Every structure is written in structure tokens, then in C-alpha cells.
Inverse folding.
């Protein structure tokens, strides 16, 4: 498992670097593809319960709306993003009204679809807005390195030194020691990146940034784990050997992205 994780990471690293370096339409299109794959995995999780019908129209609507939100973020049109979210809500509500009598689970499907839209494309759109901003490439690398460092630190510290459970009802394998190891890795990598690439940033706020990113990432990881726990599945998918699915790989990043955007636009400015 460890070897597969490292091989997958090393193979995907050049493509990730290229996408971030180029930015622009390539970055937006790549995130749109990730969005569709993550939404598909999310629906696989939340609609996994037996005996419940799924409204294909509502799911297809989300698959359409998700990339539109990403592309709208690329165009820096916040008002249009809000309009798209409202369009999805109204359209899904109409579908609910037409199927309410024949499908007892339609309202539940509706709420899960709305959550999926907020959870994946809305949160991914913060990455686009960060990349489009001043020094966007550096900030995306800053965010990814801090998040990935926390993930690696938590995994290995928890594996070798973990003793006390962090949230056993959600993720029995995650430990307090692993959480502390992850936050320590967040802090070390964040401070090093700040001194090397963004030396003008205040040290104290950079420390707060790194720890906030780490905490948000761990909450995102646990949130996805709670979804999988409720569906009684281990991984969101099998697209990434050693990591699981796309959603397994970006769960921490989804929650960390809006925190990073907030710091970049309102704290460090």
C-alpha cells in the first residue's frame, strides 16, 4: 500500500506541476474533470444504501452544473456562480415536485445533490480563484504542499506512533498522535515555503495560516470518512492506486481551499 501511494504520487507529480504552472484554461478544465469524477464518487457514496431509488435527472443536473461553476470561477464572475447555484436549486425543486408522489426518496436525493454541489464544485472553485489572483501559482503550491505534508505526516506518525483514537466513530484508524504529526508537518513545510518563496509574509500569520490549513484539511478528511462510514464503504473509488478515489485524494484540499483563499485575500493583503 505504501509503495503504491508513492508510485502514484511520483507519476502524477509532473502532470500536477504542469497544470498549476500553466494555469489559465488548462487549470480550469483539469479541475472541471476532477469535479465530475469527484461528484460521481460522492453520489456513489451517498446513494449506496440499499432499497433507495436514485433520480437520474437530479444527478445529471449536478454533473452539468459542477463544471459550469468551475468555469464561471475561472471567469471571475461571482454573481454568475450564485445564479448557477440558484438555477440548480430551482430546477431540482421542479424535479422533486414532478416525482414526489411516485418516489418516496426524491426529497432525500434532492438534499444530497444540493450538498454535493456545495461540497465539491463550490469548494473547488476557490482553487481557481486563488490561481487567478496575484502570485496565484505560488499560493496554489503553498496550499498543496502544506496539505500534502499534513497528510503524509498524519499517516506515518499515526501508523507508527498512534495510540489514542481521534474520532473512532468516524475513522477508527486515525489517532491524536497522527493528528499532531500532521499539524507539525503543516507547520514545518508552511514556514519553510514562506521563507523560501514568500519572504515578505509575516511569520506569525504564516504559522496561523499553516495550522488553519492543517485543521481544515483534517476536518475535511474526517467529513469524507463520515460519508463513507454511513455507506459502509472503504474508498470513494479505485482510480488512484494506493489512495482510493479522487475524492479520497482531495477531501482535505476541499476544506482547506476556502481557508487559504480567506487568508490570501483578507489577511495577507
Amino acid at each position: 500500500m505504501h509503495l503504491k501511494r508513492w508510485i502514484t504520487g511520483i507519476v502524477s507529480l509532473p502532470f500536477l506541476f504542469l497544470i498549476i504552472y500553466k494555469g489559465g484554461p488548462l487549470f480550469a478544465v483539469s479541475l472541471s474533470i476532477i469535479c465530475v469524477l469527484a461528484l460521481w464518487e460522492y453520489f456513489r457514496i451517498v446513494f449506496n444504501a440499499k432499497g433507495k431509488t436514485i433520480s437520474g435527472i437530479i444527478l445529471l443536473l449536478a454533473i452539468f452544473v459542477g463544471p459550469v461553476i468551475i468555469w464561471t470561477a475561472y471567469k471571475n464572475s461571482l454573481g454568475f456562480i450564485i445564479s448557477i447555484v440558484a438555477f440548480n436549486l430551482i430546477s431540482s425543486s421542479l424535479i422533486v415536485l414532478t416525482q414526489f408522489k411516485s418516489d418516496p426518496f426524491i426529497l432525500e436525493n434532492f438534499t444530497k445533490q444540493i450538498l454535493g454541489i456545495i461540497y465539491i464544485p463550490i469548494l473547488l472553485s476557490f482553487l481557481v480563484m486563488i490561481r487567478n489572483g496575484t502570485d496565484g501559482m505560488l499560493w496554489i503550491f503553498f496550499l498543496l504542499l502544506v496539505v500534502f505534508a499534513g497528510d503524509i505526516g498524519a499517516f506515518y506518525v499515526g501508523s507508527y506512533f498512534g495510540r489514542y483514537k481521534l474520532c473512532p466513530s468516524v475513522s477508527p484508524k486515525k489517532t491524536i498522535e497522527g493528528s499532531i504529526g500532521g499539524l507539525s508537518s503543516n507547520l514545518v513545510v508552511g514556514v519553510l515555503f514562506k521563507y523560501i518563496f514568500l519572504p515578505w509574509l509575516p511569520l506569525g500569520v504564516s504559522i496561523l495560516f499553516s495550522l488553519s490549513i492543517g485543521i481544515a484539511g483534517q476536518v475535511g478528511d474526517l467529513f469524507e470518512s463520515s460519508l463513507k462510514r454511513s455507506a459502509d464503504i472503504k474508498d470513494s473509488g479505485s482510480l488512484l492506486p494506493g489512495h482510493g478515489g479522487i475524492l479520497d485524494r482531495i477531501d482535505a484540499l476541499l476544506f482547506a481551499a476556502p481557508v487559504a483563499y480567506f487568508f490570501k485575500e483578507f489577511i495577507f493583503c
Observations:
- Strands lie at 165-167, 171-175.
- The chain is about 80% helix and 5% strand.
- The first strand starts at residue 165 and ends at 167.
- The CA atoms of residues 88 and 261 lie 25 Å apart.
